[in-house]
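Appendix B, example 12.
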Amino acid sequence: MKANDMSESELFKAAQNMESYGGGFAEAIALAYFRADSTNQVRLIDAFGHLFERYAPVQTCPHCTRDLEDAQEIADGLCSSDDCPRHDE
């Protein structure tokens, strides 16, 4: 999902994931997002949308529809279950 199409709650969760699980730069962008007014939040999303997209909450694995649970799965957009069909590829 493109950052510009994400809801406020999805952007907020993505920023939380960036702060908790991203590198130093992603963490700094997340903190700036939390402190920014709405105009500057839009500027951050326009400039760094790829980070919001990477850390956006993904609901299910595209291969097995299992709910993604931990931050690494969310960042990867894939589950880590051994039962997932993607492990057979």
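The chain has a mean pLDDT of 86. The radius of gyration is 14 Å.
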